[in-house]
Design a protein that fits this description.
Distance between the termini: 24 Å
Shape: globular
Mean pLDDT: 95
Number of strands: 19
Structural class: alpha+beta
Low-confidence stretches: none
């Protein structure tokens, strides 16, 4: 277990902001997670739990404990699939998410391929309910093993009890900072059923002359699309998609569609429609613009970037300015997907 005082979090956030925490604890096993839980119970200072830092914006030094998992490898499976053709895959919360996707696709286990190249760790997939290109982690997660901080007990949480919604879970609300996730178990299919109608996946495959893609070809295409649109955080600090796509009433969407011909949208249900936040931000003229050292990516308006030396406060100012402009133009509130601390 790592236990470091006055620790820089620069390598733990993809915006590359050099904020510090008073103490940094990192666990690599279930036993170490239990030890960390004991420290947190007995400590009088506040704490937060972070993942890979790809969904984190630090606005100042944190006067408390930051906890991180580096637990990797295969974990236990207690919940067996109810349907044939499904295979459980359990991985440590500190495992790199895309490494797990690559493994599963390479071993004929399907369902994760549309979530390729999403940055972050396995634990974050369960907290954030990560999603992209029509797929969400909640549709794959079966159960989560975790250490309950208050009791120090190892517990198993069923996916249906986690309150999953669009980029939501109980881990972000009533369960926030109450569990140290150790392993996440997913149920994957041995039958590949491609999902190609979100974004420009199908168009890119057609451009390559691929009519019946394999899972690997879908994964490769999604990686290419993401790399073309999203900046490399090792070069330009960013947290990927900064805002959630808002879900509005069908009446609201239809009223806007009359004003904005060709307005993109995605069906949610009979009464609700999802509108791409990036499109609205672009319509407000923000793509490629900046406020000081914080800017909007010139290829994807959903991405806020650190142009060099930006503080978390500067990025928050840009965020709030964009939110106000979108609200003024479309009458729609957009909210950050990123955790702001």
């Amino acid at each position: 277990m790592r236990d470091i005082k006055d620790y820089s979090l620069k390598e733990h956030n993809t915006f590359g902001i050099d904020a510090k925490c008073s103490r940094f604890l990192e666990y690599e096993s279930v036993d170490e997670a239990m030890e960390v839980a004991k420290i947190l119970r007995e400590s009088a200072i506040p704490y937060i739990i972070i993942g890979g830092g790809s969904n984190l914006l630090l606005t100042k030094d944190y006067d408390g404990i930051v906890v991180h998992s580096r637990l990797t490898g295969t974990g236990p499976v207690s919940r067996k699939p109810q349907l044939t053709g499904l295979v459980p895959v359990s991985r440590g919360s500190g495992e790199v998410w895309d490494d797990v996707v690559a493994y599963c696709v390479g071993h004929g286990l399907y369902g994760m391929e549309n979530l390729s190249l999403i940055p972050g760790d396995v634990g974050a997939s369960a907290v954030q309910n990560i999603g992209a290109y029509g797929a969400e982690a909640k549709d794959l997660i079966a159960e989560i093993e975790a250490v309950e901080i208050a009791s120090g007990q190892l517990v198993t949480l069923r996916a249906e009890d986690c309150g999953y919604g669009y980029r939501e879970s109980k881990f972000k609300h009533e369960w926030k900072n109450k569990y140290l996730i150790t392993y996440v178990t997913y149920l994957l299919s041995t039958t590949f059923e491609p999902r190609l109608d979100y974004g420009n996946i199908r168009a890119e495959l057609e451009r390559k002359g691929i009519a019946q893609p394999t899972a690997q070809q879908v994964r490769d295409t999604i990686i290419e699309i993401r790399q073309a649109k999203l900046p490399d955080p090792k070069v330009t600090g960013n947290a990927g998609s900064f805002f959630m796509n808002p879900i509005v009433s069908r009446g609201k969407y239809e009223a806007l569609a009359k004003q904005y011909e060709g307005m993109p949208h995605y069906e949610v249900d009979a009464d609700h429609v999802k509108i791409p936040a990036g499109w609205m931000i672009d319509q407000c003229g923000w793509k490629g613009r900046s406020l000081g050292r914080a800017g909007v990516h010139d290829k994807q308006a959903l991405v806020l970037v650190n142009l060099g030396g930006a503080t978390g406060a500067e990025i928050v100012t840009l965020c709030e300015t964009i939110r106000a402009d979108v609200k003024a133009k479309f009458g729609i509130e957009i909210y950050p997907e990123v955790n702001i601390i």
